[in-house]
Amino acid sequence: MRFRLTPRETSFxxxxxxxxxxxxxxxxLLMELLGADTPDRGEIAERMRAAEHAGDDAxxxxxxxxxxxxxxxxxxxxxxxxxxxxxxxxxxMEEAVDLVVLYKVxxxxxxxxxxxxxxVRAAELTAEAMPNLRTxxxxxxxxxxxxxxxNQADQIHRKLLAHLFSGKYDxxxxxxxxxxxxxxxxxxxxxxxVANTVETIAVKEx
Length: 206
Description:
The chain has helices spanning about 10-35, 40-70, 75-100, 110-130, 140-165, 170-205. The protein has six helices and no strands. Helix 1 (about 10-35) packs parallel to helix 3, helix 3 runs antiparallel to helix 6 (about 170-205) and helix 4 (about 110-130) packs antiparallel against helix 5. By secondary structure, the chain is an all-alpha fold. The chain is globular. It is about 75% helix and about 0% strand.
């Protein structure tokens, strides 16, 4: 790690950790949605919406700190990219839950549970990794595993699409379900964007 003669703003680390912890909350709400009866999904959607708003607040706090800090722990563009990608994850997860409720989906197709399990694991790994930005320790394993999980998510997504187009569902239902599984795939991609940004930061700081 490069030796620095100037002090650095350290509150960013805490804000990134808080943002990632909030994503874990969102991923657990996704998992809760899987086992919920249709009438209970609206209440879960409300809690997810509140978590998404909390994520927005965390992102705005990071941007405000970035704009008001003379010295930052790493490059400003990387701070912005990391905060934005974390925010994207919450946005996609909230959108998926909202679509399930709005479309009145009674039964999610087999395979969505696997998508969500991948997201939960990625959320946990991301939350564990954020505090390590202080020291840049034990981050290589993190981004390698996130990339592996994203590849797994791609495979699950392709199988889901094949299932949706198998003829089991009518055309309107296919459109509804495809939008949901696509958004969940976007969430997995966003986790990879976070990991790639962390890798970029670690390389620059080495």
